[in-house]
Design brief:
There is one protein chain. The chain is of the alpha+beta class. It contains six helices and nine strands; from the N terminus they run αββαββββααββααβ. The protein starts with a helix and ends with a strand.
Length: 236
Amino acid sequence: MNPVLKDLIELLKLERIDDNIFRGQSRDIGSAQVFGGQVVGQALSAAHHTVEDRRAHSLHAYFLRRGDMTAPIIYEVDRARDGGSFSMRRVVAIQHGRPIFNLAVSFQKPETGLEHQAEMPDVPGPDGLQDLTDVAPEILQKIPEKMRRYLTDKRPFEFRPVSPMNFAVPKKQPAVKYIWIRAVDKLPDSNSLHQNLLAYVSDYELLGTSTLPHGLPFGQGMVQMASLDHAVWMHR
């Protein structure tokens, strides 16, 4: 398996301390603090350890404090409810004795029922689109050195934007971005792992998309950005 993807899978495997208490470590991906997606993915992983034969279908989270990359993160799971079809879990991520993140996640056992789906957006398929890391050298040189790693480091996922942007001189545009995403290698056949990875990667590109209407150069300016809240709905 691709070593970067394998490392991420190991990162999402938590150490069990007690029935409802888990410990996770952190990885530096170039940000000043713990990547929010890592905390979301690890918190969901902790919740998954307390349910059987049920799949997460929605999660809602709040980021309370910056995560310290040098310290482990403790995840405490509250088994709020186990019903006939649904289970609810609350997870608190703790560092240095203080909560840094809250998660509420709902699980459902596989059942048949009414179903529908939204229409697929009219966008090109992934074949022929460039990966986000395929940035022209002349553009890369115009990006602050501390931010180049974000575009050049090997990643566990491919990101193929439908409309690549000029990171050095972006144009103002609506806060909408279409990106094809997939793991860089074949994944083990584990629904919980797939959901944990999806939760992890769901925090990529959100903050950057929110700045598109302002035309801000990548990694420059006086704007400080951080995730405050997060929600994911998982469909079949």
